[in-house]
Each structure stands twice: as C-alpha cells, then as structure tokens.
Amino acid sequence: MKRLKVISVVGARPQFIKAAPVSRALREHHDELLVHSGQHYDRAMSDVFFEQLGIPRPDFNLAVGSGSHARQTGEMMTMLEELFCEQQPDVVLVYGDTNTTLAAALAAAKLGIPVAHVEAGLRSFNRSMPEEINRVVVDHVSDLLLCPTTGAVEHLRAEGITEGVELVGDVMLDAARYFGERVDVDRTLGELGLKAGEYFLATVHRAGTSDSRDQLRSVIYAFDRLERPVLWAVHPRTLKNLDEFGLREAVADSANIRVVPPLSYLETLALLRGALGLLTDSGGMQKEAYFFGIPCVTLRDETEWTETVELGWNVLTGTNQDRIVEAARGMRTPHEHPDVYGDGRAAEALVRALGRRYAI
User: Fold this and answer.
1) Rounded CA gap, 98 and 208, in Å?
2) CATH number, domain with residue 130
3) Which residue in 28, 147, 252, 327 is deepest, having the highest Cβ count within 10 Å?
4) Residue 334: inside a domain
5) What is the dihedral of CA 356, 157, 139, 315, to 10 degrees?
C-alpha cells in the first residue's frame, strides 16, 4: 500500500479538535500537510488548541480572518486552489460544515482532486443555516464520505449518494475519550469556585442567536431565571453583540450568570464533566455532553445530532425563554446510553477507508 499525500484543511475550533486524533492516526501510514485557513484566528479560539491537543503545527496558514460568507469563502478558494496546484495531493481531507470546509472542497473538486469529507451526511434540514448549505454542497462534491452515524448514511442514501460512503464513527468521540481521561475535573472546578453537579455550562455563538438582539436577550433572561449558577463561556462574536445591543448590563446584573472568556478544549471537557447540564447552540457540544452522560438543552429549533434528542439526552427549545427554563429545570438522566457514535476508534477506521479508496 502506497503512502498517500493528504492535505487536511481546518479553520475552526471543532475542526482542530477532530484533527487531533485524525492526524495522529493518519501520519502513521501517510504523509499529511496541515492547512489552517485562519477562519478562527483569536488565540483562545485557535492557537491554544494546537498547543494543548498536540496537533502538528500547520504547514500553511492562509490567515483569511473574518468577513462575509462570500468574501471569506472566495478568498480561501483562491489561495487553496494555488496551494493544491503547487502541492498536488492525492486527496484533500475536510471536516464538518464551515466556510473553510466548503472552500477547500470546491477548490479541490474543480481541480479534479478527490475530496474526503469527515462528518458527511449530517442534516438539520434547515436551509436558513449557512452550515446546512455548506454540508449539503460538500457532500455532493466529495468522493469519500466518512459518516459518524447510521443516520448520516441514511441521509446520503435519501439524496442518491451511495458510492464512496463509509460508516467510521465519530472522531470527536475519539478526542473526548482520549483527552477526557487526562483532565482534572476537581482542580478545574476548584479554581473557579464551582461544585460538581451544581451549575450549568453555557455557550452561545451561532449567528441566528447571537446576531439577534431579541433572541440573545431571551437567552440571557432565561439563564437569569435558573436557580443554579450558569457559567457562560462567551464567544468573541457574542461578547461584541452584548455591547452593541446594550445587553452587557443585563448580564452583569444577574445574580447567577457568570461570564468567562472562551475555554480551551481541556477546560471545556472538565467543566462539562462536572456540570449539572449543558445549555448551548453548538452542534459539537451537544455530542460531547452525550459522550459524558450530561443532559443538554439546545437553544435551537433543530439539530443535526438527532440521536441525542431521540434518546432523551437533549431537548430542543429554540431561544424561547420559558421553554429554556422549563427544559433546564426538568433535566433528567435517561437510563439508556447506547454507543450510537461508535467505539472511540473512528480515526483508525477513517485512515483504513482512505487506504482502501486511494492507496491500492
């Protein structure tokens, strides 16, 4: 079996986490060049993940920065096209559903370079979400579709995609298990003056929530009504909007909302493991809560991780204040917790799939 030349393209926090186990497994058998688009460029959202997770330093950093969807995607496509032409990889590996994912997949596909999509087949069925557009388009230009769940495989089949589909499991479970065993929950909680099982962990970052004054205000008022402390790790975008919408005072006046800067992945795992529950609009964190048996309230009307809802570990509330409060107060731990996301060895299965497809 020949060694493949693989270009992996990442650019956002969840992709850095997924790249940790994948790069570790991939480099045992193939040659990888890691490209950072610069979509997330704040140190707390980028550099710290490479440092803490032992991810190889990027071979290339496009430093695209923030901007509109069109500008960001277009600039990345231009730079990636040039890079792909220069490096001539056997395959381009992309993750998830960000603008980085879309730009890399389109640039590679137009050059005739095979695209392998990690987390293929996910669907929220809400086309108003930019992420949904990205994941659908990327799946339809990908040559190898690496699915985390049986539901993802079924979504692709319903769209007529059956060739090159591989069920490998969820690489985020690989990362959560590997690093979850290495965090000190008691120490992290002690440093923040928290007690296990007596607080909620919260994150809010999606445009549909953080860019709307009414929706962001509703979430804040819901957090304020909860009888437990709410540790809110505030995304830079959300922090900016709190000021623009005049909502910073409402947060400061709350007796139980406690704002902290963005957390590293290891801090997030420790705080999640110690939490009573998670309040989030993040996709990946819904799964991470499930991995550790922590109930979740998702501040969205739909989720691509439908298994968490079907099994009773996750409740969808949107940003309705009363629904958030009711769901948080009624959190429970279901009896069943099946391994719907695999066995924690998805990265190894992914590398085997790449070898079968391209290295023969």
Assistant:
1) 15
2) 3.40.50.2000
3) 147
4) no
5) -120
DSSP state of 292: T
For residues 282 and 202, give the distance between their C-alpha atoms in angstroms, rounded to a whole number.
Answer: 10
pLDDT at 41 over 70: no
- pLDDT above 90 as % of the chain: 82
Question: How much is the mean pLDDT over the chain?
Answer: 93
Q: Tell me the three-class secondary structure of 124-163, residue by residue.
A: CCCCCCHHHHHHHHHHHHCCEEEECCHHHHHHHHHCCCCC
Distance of alpha carbon 339 from alpha carbon 112, whole angstroms: 37
Q: Are residues 260 and 120 in the same domain?
A: no
Domain count, the chain: 2
Alpha helices in the chain (DSSP H): 13-26, 47-53, 69-87, 99-110, 130-141, 150-158, 171-180, 185-192, 207-210, 213-225, 236-244, 248-252, 265-274, 284-291, 306-310, 321-329, 346-358
Q: Which two tokens stand for residue 27?
A: 């480099």
Percent of the chain with pLDDT over 70: 97
Contact by Cβ (8 Å): 6, 45: no
Confidence class of residue 205 from pLDDT cuts 50, 70 and 90? confident
Q: Same structural domain for residues 11 and 125?
A: yes
Q: Are 203 and 271 in contact (CB under 8 A)?
A: no
Q: What letter would DSSP give residue 57?
A: P
Q: Which domain holds residue 57?
A: 5-170+342-358
Asked if the structure places residue 335 within a domain, the reply is no
- Residue 285 · residue 267 · CB < 8 Å: no
Q: Is residue 127 part of a domain?
A: yes
- What is the pTM assigned to this prediction? 0.91
The answer to whether residues 141 and 190 belong to one domain is no
Task: Tell whether the model's pLDDT for residue 280 goes beyond 90.
Answer: yes
Catalytically annotated residues: 205
**Inside any domain, residue 150:** yes
| 7-39 pLDDT, tens digit each | 999 998 889 889 999 999 999 999 999 999 987
pLDDT for position 44: 46
> Is residue 198 domain-shared with residue 324, that is, in the same domain?
yes
The three-class DSSP label of residue 204 is: strand
